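Lab notebook: predicted structure, single chain.

Context: the supervisor wants predicted structures on file for every construct in the current expression panel, including those that have not yet been purified. This is the next one on the list. No modifications to the sequence; it matches the entry in the shared construct table.
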Amino acid sequence: MLAALLLAALGVLLGATAQGKGGRRMEALTISSPGFSHGEAIPSRHTCDGNDTSPAIVIGRVPQATRSLALVMDDPDAPLGDWVHWVVWNIPPQTREIPEHGLPPQAKQGKNDWHRNSYGGPCPPSGTHRYFFRVYALDTTLHLGDSTAKGDLERAMQGHVLAKGELMGTYKRR
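Prediction complete. Output recorded below exactly as produced.
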């Protein structure tokens, strides 16, 4: 009984938040990584304790009308609030895997909160933090400059998101 109530509540929550372009129900992309599963620890090689290389990201269920993909990685548990680790857009729509420590040549990277146009891996000052990788399917390509930050990207994507997927990993410093 409790499980049924929880599933029903989850369905209402997802239905309330899954609105896409034109108020239509947003499709869900699938996001995964060969290095870690949703909710599990991110391997240290992808953090400041290792080589600080971006993990491979596998993308599935991309809508046919997609013209480009965008990716944001952030840490909502940072002491000063949301800390942005990675901002990427204009990933080709046929991309099904973003390789470890790489991006397709057409992809553009914006500024993370270290003011770098690159991936910046997990490096929490204390405790275990959650890191969200969100990939968006867009019905357009974006014309943004190198100084683009997460907020700029989110504003540019408004009204263009066809689908969204999310992968969450955790990390605690050694």
